[in-house]
Amino acid sequence: MTLGAGVGAAGRDKLPAEGVRGKRGLALLFAALLLCAGTVGAQALVETRASKNARIEALLEQAANAMAGVYDYRGTLVKRELFGDELLQQTIEFKFSRPFKVYVKYIEPHAGREAIYIRGVNRNRLRAHKGSLPDVAVSLRPHGAIAMAYNHHPITSFGLERMLEVGARNIRKAITQGDATLRVSDGGAVHGEPTWRIDMESKAGGRYVTVRNSETLWDLARRVEQDMYVILHHNDEIDGPAGIHEGQRVFVPNYYASRGEYFIGKRTFMMVKAKSWDHNGRLYESYEYPTLELNPGLEARDFDHRNKDYDFMVVNQR
């Protein structure tokens, strides 16, 4: 009994200690496995993110390379742009040729309105007429109030290449800063063109910038590398590009859009559709091309206001 008791006592004293050590060992082993799994998971996540970003970068690079091989194009543009609380839709027929020639004709609204802009010609002003009586052709400053009325962008920024540049800059900024969600997927057919779709979503945010002496909002936008109308849209107290003064603090959003959808054709690699939402979650703008013909061989007459197929009249300077 004593021996048995002694053995039993020794067992009672020893077994729990071994059990504790065993449990601790298992716990440490389990923790190590979790750590390894977590590390592998984190590595997989980083690799997945890197792989996804690489796919997006490659797609943007292919789009840029394809764009470089397009010398002229024509088609129809449907654009929707937010002005105050109104989302205005416009349908426009257009022609574009390098190095930079643009002809546009409005289908709706303002049916018959036409404009031509050729960089370096006509004192870098656009020729336009409103298409309704009294109808007189005029030459306008591209960044002036008349030319910019109900437009987010001046005619000097028209075209597929500029749309790709804006979208690519927004996407690449998100990749570099790592503060946005990016996805790439099949985008379905956009007006008959099978597409890839890139989705980007970031947190709303920005910084305040102080206006310098004699700066307009155009000047400030160039300085901070942000779109002028994006800045204007997010500063309700500013009523126009000239409506700022030295020392004023202006809010500049981090991103062109807090959310974007970009569609790149699988056959042409053109960015054929782009949608952007502002920092309040409202659709800010949308551009798409129901018809698009690449490299049709446009001629000088396609950008000549004297073309008999156009309706320009006597030019007045404004």
Task: Report on this structure.
The structure is a single chain. With 318 residues, the chain is of the alpha+beta class. The protein is built from five helices and 14 strands. It has a twelve-stranded mixed sheet with strand order 7-8-11-12-13-1-2-3-4-5-6-14, covered by helices on one side. Strands 9-10 form a two-stranded antiparallel sheet. Helix 1 runs antiparallel to helix 3.
Order of helices and strands: HEEEEEEHHEEEHHEEEEE
Strand content: 25-35%
> What would you call the shape?
globular
CATH architecture of the largest domain: Clam
Instruction: Give the overall pLDDT as a whole number.
Output: 86
In DSSP terms, counting alpha (H) and pi (I) runs of 4 or more, how many helices? 5
Would you spell out the secondary-structure blueprint of this structure?
Layout: H1 2-68, E1 72-83, E2 86-97, E3 101-108, E4 114-118, E5 126-129, E6 137-140, H2 145-148, H3 160-177, E7 180-190, E8 193-202, E9 206-210, H4 217-224, H5 228-233, E10 249-253, E11 259-265, E12 271-277, E13 283-294, E14 315-317
Parallel strand pairs: 6-14
Antiparallel strand pairs: 1-2, 1-13, 2-3, 3-4, 4-5, 5-6, 7-8, 8-11, 9-10, 11-12, 12-13
Helix pairs in contact: 1-3
